[in-house]
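Subgroup meeting minutes
Present: P.N., E.W., G.H.
Scribe: E.W.

1. P.N. recapped why we're keeping a running log of single-chain structure predictions: easier to compare across weeks, and new members can see raw inputs and outputs side by side.
2. G.H. added today's entry (309 aa).
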Amino acid sequence: MMKNVLTVSQVIDAFIEQHENHEINKNGAKRSGSESAKPYRQLHNSLDKFTKARYKRLFDTYSFSELGEKFLLAYVAFLKQQEGGVSTHLRKLRSVFYLAADRIGVPSINTSVFDCVRDELRQPEFAAKVIPSEVMRQIENIDRSQFDRKERLHIDLLLFCYYTGGMSCIDIAYLTHDCVKGDALCYTREKAPKNAIIPFIPRAKAIVEKYKGMTVGNYLLPIFTYKHNTEAKQTGRVKRIYERASDTFRKVQKLIGCDEQPIWAGARGTFIVEMLKADYTEMALAEIVGLHPARICGYYSIPIMHGEM
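Output recorded in log:
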């Protein structure tokens, strides 16, 4: 049992250790919680930089009682000037306060101190992106002779994202043959502990069939190679695929002459809009795309549904 004299830094470190030591079973593979711990490590580093710059003091020495309104307001100003991520850092710091009070038992925790930064705690407004359906048709039929092998894979991954309800790049990477249940893909999302059941339509199946024999292990698509044999290497691989695909999508934009660059989130938006037009309910779509029904209703409105990006 942890003692009640812990500093803020020690509680954050405990949070990090708790996540890193927690194994998660996703889609038939055991993975560490290192990705869940990452935001708290970033929070700790950010707070350390702030206290050194502002107060010439190590963050490791701060108690919870010292993180009052004045501290939080100064930290917000620092984030706005130096780092960004105001809402994310504040929300993580508030969760540390709740952890210390409710689960560890640190006395005299004042969670109401965050009332002074209530506006900054709000998440930035979500900007719905939609690739117009006619642009998706152009991408499907684009002349692939103008792209190299890796670029053609990026295009197929974007189309697979579209065909599977806007599945994220990281979710696509970890799909295995065990996730295929007849005409559905059943998997656990990587970014949140949510199960998803996605219709596995013929066009998505055709992409998987196209790369049959080019994958390693039990994976559906050739994102990982034999070199990516650790979780860290796989995480890096997904990040590089995501970044390099953006270059490919810029090339696609120039070739087909669309107003905006196609992006992963835009493919999800296209799927949502087309399903709404086909009279799917927000509740049914929420199960597929992983968004709350109210978000679908609020963000994918009538003007966007008529092709605006």
